[in-house]
Amino acid sequence: MPRLRQVPRSEIEDDYVLALYNTLFGERDPVAEPGTATGTPGNWWTVFAQVPDAFKHTTEGFAFYRSPERKLDEQLRELGQTRAGYLVGSQFVYSQHMKAARFSGLTEEQVQAIAHWSTAECFDAKERAVLAYTDALVLQYGRVPDALFEALKGHLSEAEIIELTYITCTYMMHGVMSRALRLEYDDVEERVVEVPAPEGASADVMGMVDKRKT
């Protein structure tokens, strides 16, 4: 279950939120009867509905990247979004944008290779520059080497770079929020935990000898 309360249809007072509930869930109460057309539980929407203006702000971001006003090619956009989801460990963002990447026209080989792009041979120089830039944004928090940025400028206009930066960072944020609140496919238990030692295992065996006593 998500870490925060979901808002049932009966409590929705904001017209914008209600309109999106209708679009996504029809007449159903998505808390009592979860599920969307894409197969997700839908609890991202029902949790964020607690704060209608935040709900509106984030969903308008979706409209931004889909706008026909965008200069950035949708395949390059999806490379950034999918890679960002993978890097922050968000199964929700990664899974959803694997599908969107296919829809944008990327080949199945390319879609599967996003996770290991640096050793893949299916991306051209422009695509590799976008993926390397995404890594710098997400893993290095925007610390982009000059040589990488110059390579990116060799393929994209300044407007395209701004759009790529904004959209990729937005989806980094979405992945982080989804994990923190345990929404959608990120509703998983922490995997990195202590595994108990066998009963009766000695400190010597576990490599825990206090060297100060020897």
CATH architecture of the largest domain: Up-down Bundle
- Rg over CA atoms, rounded to whole Å, is 22 Å
Which regions have little confidence, pLDDT < 50, spanning 5+ residues?
none
> H/E element string?
HHHHHHHHH
Amount of beta strand: under 5%
Taking the alpha carbons of the first and last residues, their distance comes to 50 Å
The multimeric state of the shown protein is single chain
Sheet with the most strands?
none
- Inertia-based shape: globular
Tally of contiguous helical segments: 9
Structural class: mainly alpha
Overall average pLDDT: 94
How many domains, as an integer? Answer: 2
CATH topology of the largest domain: AhpD-like
Helix content: 40-55%
CATH homologous superfamily classification of the largest domain:
AhpD-like
The number of strands is 0
* CATH domain class name of the largest domain: Mainly Alpha
Please outline the helices and strands:
Elements: H1 15-25, H2 43-48, H3 52-66, H4 74-87, H5 91-104, H6 108-113, H7 125-139, H8 146-153, H9 158-181
Helix pairs in contact: 4-5, 4-7, 4-9, 5-9, 7-8, 7-9
